[in-house]
């Protein structure tokens, strides 16, 4: 543990801030056409899962396919099931945005390599206004030593895969709902590893925040997407 993390733990133990469990957290995952499309990258699927008392509340989750308004060529990295036939009957992003904004505005967004999702969401839905971004990839790098920090590997290492399968029936890895539920469960597991008592949100962001202005303006880095899976 470095000095900043030690200070955060001491700050929390002193009772200076409420537990992270009481904060308004929403786990988020987007599936898109890929960063190779640049400014034309389209959102194909969205899932947003609120955390209640530190656990994913699947009953109030928001998940939907999104009609991109154009044919999507077959690409090996596009998530399974996101075909043109499946997307044809989905709502367009303009119809999705108001409901998504109601859930995400004013919340702390939690994602695995969250800047990838935020970059795309900010570009396509610039009206959405979270208050902070929390990255489970960064947090895992800070508290675990493992050959791979991909979401699927971390969940397997922490024996959480079966729990995700149960909580996200009908979904699968690399689909938005499965990955979002997995991210929410991963956050709680990483916190349990690192802190003896519940940290405050400030303690978490001291280790694993991503600047909100790091979305549209940040360059696309191929390595970013490698950490998603």
TrEMBL record:
InterPro entries: Ribonucl_H, RNaseH-like_sf, RNaseH_sf
Gene Ontology CC entries for this record: cytosol
Annotated protein name in UniProt: 3'-5' exonuclease
GO biological process per UniProt: DNA replication proofreading
Taxonomy, superkingdom: Bacteria
All copies of domain Exonuclease, residue ranges: 24-196
CDD domains found in the cross-reference section: DEDDh (cd06127)
